[in-house]
Design goal:
By secondary structure, this protein is an alpha/beta fold. Helix content is 40%, strand content 21%. Bound molecules: manganese (II) ion (MN) (2 copies).
Length: 307
Amino acid sequence: MPNYAVGHKIPDSDSICSAIALSYLKTTIGEPTVPARLGELSPETLFILDKFGFEQPELKTSYAGEGVYIVDHSDKVQGPDDLDEATVLGIIDHHKLGDITTSTPLECWIRPVGCTNTIIKMMYDFHGVEIPKDIAGAMMCAILSDTVIFKSPTCTTADIKCVEALAEIAGIDDPKELGMEMFKVKSAVEGTPARDLVFRDFKDFNMSDNLVGIGQLEVIDLAMLDNMKADLEAEIVKVKEEGNRHSVILLLTDIMKEGSELLVVSDDASVIERAYDAKLAEGKVWLDGVLSRKKQVVPPLQDAFAG
Ligand code: MN
Ligand code: MN
């Protein structure tokens, strides 16, 4: 029976590409592993899979009785619902340490870098396994996505060096140009229902026993969302009610202007104002320089909830 490698719910390119890359590595070193996903793929991820000739990983939501590698998260609420009934063989991640625990020893690769695929490259190097060209290309794109083409404050020297090495293996001359092409695909929001946009990259967090949902839309020009903003605001009100959430925040990130507008609905907006030291106007505020949910949005909010 093979093991599985799976990323978080509402999978992004890092979750999918790291499941694929880790599965190949594990299988090569004699431990058959299959990449899986917990949900539908974004246009950006489909672009990457198509570009490098990959099928979509298997859609698999139940892992009871299976061996599983968790990639790109370590928060229970973001992983498979029945993870407690699975054997977690390892965690490979670059987020804050979450609340997944195990009853058996596990392999843990957690590093404060910009992307899980940067860590998986370290694992390939550790095991002395050559990365195939197509996998290198997909890994490289995931790093460009997670680091917003190196602009995110989460980006480290390790990520930049990793992209250089992977680009060479994949035979890609200009990774940044491919990154821009990818972000253009990601920015194509015209005609997409507001609900799909809210959930395109959406994560729930447990903050001092309050459920907080934070979505993010990254575009190359925020103006393209102007005529959709009212619909997005109406949608996050629904999302908050449906999920019994304390708050829902949607980050509209302009990757060229390098900042984010926050759309906020909350039972207590003062927590959010405190977290970002900013005043909301009609549930909205622009935060200059904010690109990263994990580094710039989640930690201050968690602190604000904690006290
Ligand atoms: Mn992710
Ligand atoms: Mn990631």
